[in-house]
Each structure stands twice: as structure tokens, then as C-alpha cells.
Amino acid sequence: MGSQIKNIFPLGFPWRTQDPFLFCVYHLDLYPKGNEEMGPAESLDGRPLGNDFVGKDGWRMYHGQTVPGFPAHPHRGFETITIVNKGYCDHSDSLGAAGRFGDGDVQWMTAGAGVQHSEMFPLLKTEEENPLELFQIWLNLPKANKFVDPHFKMLWHEDIPFVQKKGVKIKIISGDYFNTKAPLPAPNSWASNPENEVAIWNIYMEPNAKLELPMTAAEVNRTLYYYKGNNVTIGNEKLTPNHGAELDSQTKTTLVNGDKASHFLVLQGNPINEPVVKYGPFVMNTEEEIQQSMQQYRLTQYGGWPWQHSDNVHPKKKGRFAKYPDGTLVEK
């Protein structure tokens, strides 16, 4: 195998990740027209509502009963980075914060000591279809930051830089691509220290285009996910869609695209190299900490749920916005 590639693996559900990343999932749902409740204007008969992951007719309700999405659930000990390329996500949380983001926006949420949130996908269009394309990435927190206060930050698509070269477009969500720097991440993130070289790049390549990935200052974990296209050549190896490649970040890496447009996600970062114990939405360093997290959630519900419904959605005509725990409101 070429020295640029360490390993090739098939993409599953979720996608395989390397430290400091814990989880990555790609959602592509071709939702139909919406109804007045912002759910699908089609029958839900025959779907296992509450746990609909089958993909019938090209879309899923996930844990939603009326509106697709993920009703209130807890997180602790890590961060979620939610990239919505198409469609919209309605955020509500136990801190009283809320938001609607989409069409390229990114939400960076530090769960830290514990937070509940819901992520619903309102189908706002009633006269046309409502496609959703979304990545959710879990980035671990080091032991020193496991219990920081919860925090969320919006990276609005207007503020996210793109690198455009001949036949290539790169969305710089985190990190530095040949001196094009992403917006600052959440303040307690592993990504907030440049020495950790955390990068999240969403890449589009036109047919026959070429792309060079920059070498890192130190050896870090770098994974390339190929989720749409025909084929791409890396060194002397061909990579086909629905496969990932673990790359050598200190070797010059050049991608040469095939005869169809290709789409990639890159996740890169210096490993935290600490024990990881996971139980559903809790990620700690020891089994004892997991038990304590579960007990605290049972006792406190991480502040409770201040919304009327666990699957809270915002008014249909509301635009993109973020309301922060301190009451600050940003409307786009």
C-alpha cells in the first residue's frame, strides 16, 4: 500500500474514527414536502416510530414521532459538532438555549459536566421537498476539561472560510489549511489549542481535479472519508466511495479525482491518549465516572427540561437564529 495511506476501511453507520474523535455519522435524508406541523406530508404508517432508522423511501424519522430528529437526550464529557449542509436543525437544551441553523451552518456544543438537548429536523417547505444533509461529529474532551460548564457556539455559514482552487472547494470548519484559518472553536475544546492540529474539512472536487493536503507539524491522526463520487487516486492507490482512509499526515498527500464529482470529509487531530469509557451519551475516563454520571443525571436531569415538549421545534416562520443561555439573541 502506498506510503500516503496507512489503512483503508469501509464506511459503516456510524463511521469509524480515531482519537481525539469518538464518533462520526452522516445523515442524508430525502424528506418529502412538509405539513403544517413541520413533519412529512406523507403517511407514517408502517414505520417503527420512535426508532426509525431503516431509510424507507429514502428518509428516516429517527426517534421523532411527528417531526424527524432526536428528542431530548443527555450528553456529558465530550463535544458535538453538527454540520448541516442542507435542510435545518432545531436545537433546544436544558440551559434554556435554542437555535435554528442550516444551509451550511455548524453548531459546536461542549457538553462538559452535562447537558440535555434535542435536535429536530423541521420540514419547513410545503411546496417542495426538504432534503437534509448533516454530519454529527463527537470530539473528546481531555480529563482536565470533562467537567467544564456546558457551552454552545454557532459557526454561521457566512463566517466559515472556503478555499477555492481549480476544481476544488474546501470548507474550513476547524483548523488551518495552508494559512486559511477556521473560526475559533468552543473555548474549552481540544481544538482550541493550535498545537493539537485539530482539523475538520469538507471537500468538493470536480472531475479530474487535484488536491494537496498540507503536512502537519507533528504526527497526528488524519482520516479521509469518501462519501460521494466514483474514484480518487491517492499516491498509487485508488479509493472508491463509501470507504475511509487513514492517512500519514507527515507525508505529502495528493488526491487526483476520477471522472465524477467527489465529496470528502477530513477529521484530523493530535490524540488525547487517555482512557475512554463510553456508555451511550456519556464519555468519561473510568467506569466509576460513568456510574456517577448516570446517577447524577437521574437525580438532576442536568438542570431539567424547560420546554413543553421533548421534541421541541421553533415557529415555522422563524429564520436562522441562536438564543444563548444568558439571553443573548442572534438572528440571521
Describe this structure in words.
The chain is mainly beta and 332 residues long. It has two domains: 1-14 and 161-274, Jelly Rolls, CATH 2.60.120.10; 21-159, Sandwich (Jelly Rolls), CATH 2.60.120. It has one helix at 287-300; strands spanning 5-10, 21-31, 69-75, 78-86, 88-93, 98-102, 106-110, 115-120, 130-140, 151-155, 162-165, 168-174, 176-177, 180-181, 199-205, 210-213, 221-228, 232-234, 237-239, 243-248, 253-257, 262-269, 277-279, 282-284, 321-323, 329-331. It has a seven-stranded antiparallel sheet with strand order 1-20-17-22-15-12-11, with no helix packed on it. The chain has a six-stranded antiparallel sheet with strand order 3-8-5-6-25-26, with no helix packed on it. Strands 2-9-4-7-10 form a five-stranded antiparallel sheet, with no helix packed on it. The longest helix is centred in the C-terminal third of the chain and has 14 residues, at 287-300. It is globular and about 55 Å long. Residues 309-332 are annotated as: Disordered. Belongs to the pirin family. InterPro entries: Pirin, Pirin_C_dom, Pirin_N_dom, RmlC-like_jellyroll, RmlC_Cupin_sf. Residues 201-301 form the Pirin C-terminal domain.
The major pleated sheet works out as:
7 strands, antiparallel
Order of helices and strands: EEEEEEEEEEEEEEEEEEEEEEEEHEE
CATH architecture field of the largest domain: Sandwich
**Which CATH class of the largest domain is shown?**
Mainly Beta
